[in-house]
Amino acid sequence: MSSSRIDASFIVPALNEEKYIERTLRSIKSQKTRLRFELIVADGKSSDRTLKIASKYADKIVVSPKSGIWAGRNEGAKKAKGRLLVFIDADTIIPPNYLDVVYQAMQDRRISGLSCAFKFDRHTNALRIIETLSNKYLHLLGRLGIGELQGFNCVIRKKDFMRVGGFPNKPLEDGAMARRLHKIGKVVFCPKTHVITSSRRMFKGGTISSIEYYANLEIMTHMPNSVLRKFLKYKKYIPYR
Fold this sequence. Notes:
single chain, alpha/beta, Spore Coat Polysaccharide Biosynthesis Protein SpsA, Chain A, 8-stranded mixed β-sheet, 9 helices, 8 strands, disordered C terminus
């Protein structure tokens, strides 16, 4: 398959994701589209069955020499031949129309990046509220052209990705990437379709603690010189992959 004919490259970073990754890869391979795409799994040296599962679905498997989800995404992008880079986390399921929806949206050359709406795979009353408010907030930012990227589902043109230097090694690397993309275009929110992403981190750490953790990362990332930093409970980024 020649590079000029590949419309999109799906890049799935993974580290010990044997419980989730098959559903993710199956949802990507099940896209109902006439667009041509490839599927790349960027592995962070998994010690479980992740690679064995990935080999059944992936067109390419690359091993990231560095740890961190930012590194996996960047490593996958290096091998990608698609004009669009579609980053999907290993615990996120996309609907069959996902590629067609985001491809159409990205025909607007003013857009440098986008993420779609999301739902959690499991719910509590608190998570339903977080899900609803988050989507509304992201939609508002997107309408203003200063949207956030959700790392578990985001789309960037490869030429723009390379132009800004890829994902940085920072807390909330997806938010930091959005700041880079704001310099060359609009980052928007696409409500026309939604992905289903795992709420496991919320359950593992507790909803309130998880909210506090990510709020602390927001301050560390976007207000590095703020006096608020000395009051933060979490002062160190702990990557999941």
